[in-house]
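pipeline: protein-struct stage 2 | run 1193 | Carboxylesterase type B domain-containing protein
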Amino acid sequence: MALPPARPHACGVGDPYNVTLFGESAGGHSTCAHLAAPSSAGLFDRVVLQSAPCTSTMGKRNRRDALAEGVATAADDFARTGRTAWKPTTPAATNAQQLASGPGGIKPVDFAKDHHYAFWKTLR
């Protein structure tokens, strides 16, 4: 959950005194954690959360209550049967290089290739 200081780099694209931290889904939970973390104080001025409210009760049930409600976990499944309930969707031999070479593969994308601000280069 590292958050590098954005203010020194913000002057290249905007107002260094108006830094907004955005998080969506799991990133929203991370953003909430930054709101509460004293070590993140002063690193940003505003936050935008999408689909992950800070008041979420996700992960708040204890194991005993979850199991009493019939909710099994992967760890319980493995402990009971010695194997997991799911099967891999891809062969174990599939790796990042194979995924990247396929049609519509997973590849890094430079969304800011036309914006050559100095700070982009410092982040690489």
